[in-house]
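Action item from last week, closing it out:
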Amino acid sequence: HGVDTVTISILKASDNSPVGESWNITGITANSAPESNNLNAEISVGENGRITADGKYVVKVSVKDKVGKETVETQNVTVDRTGPIVEITSHTENDVVNAVKTISGTASDEGSGLASGTYKLYYTEGETTQEISLTDEQCKLNIKANGNWDATIPENTLQNQGKYKIEVSIKDKAGFKTTKSVNIVYDNALP
């Protein structure tokens, strides 16, 4: 019977709403279709031919023959070109603290999802800043399924009073990393 029309659509996976317009390819004949029965088509979506928002999408291809019989195939696609959104919630900029036992916050990634996270601590004395030596295992963040994360700071890590920086880095499953930091002041002296 031969192929009459091929329709290609891109839908948001969350609600199956269309992204842009569908494309119809018509006029396919036995002479114009490749011998392998494969049809290659390049389509453009959004800005510069790309889906502009990270997220989960469905590419839907519908092939209809001349007598109206239709075959539909779908393929799930994840678009992820940006790092996760990361917030530190346990401390605010220039907090004065007399101890730091844990750090915590939130993270989210609409693209590929959260993969892993680490933290670093820096101590500043005068004009000199140095990283506090911790093992890789000590620096791992515990990231929960809901995006909340935390880490326990080893006892006696903050030994000198003064300025510290907490730096948190979280990667998504596509390998993109976001780093956030907050400065605190450690003061364990009695008033």
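Closing note: The CA atoms of residues 123 and 164 lie 5 Å apart.
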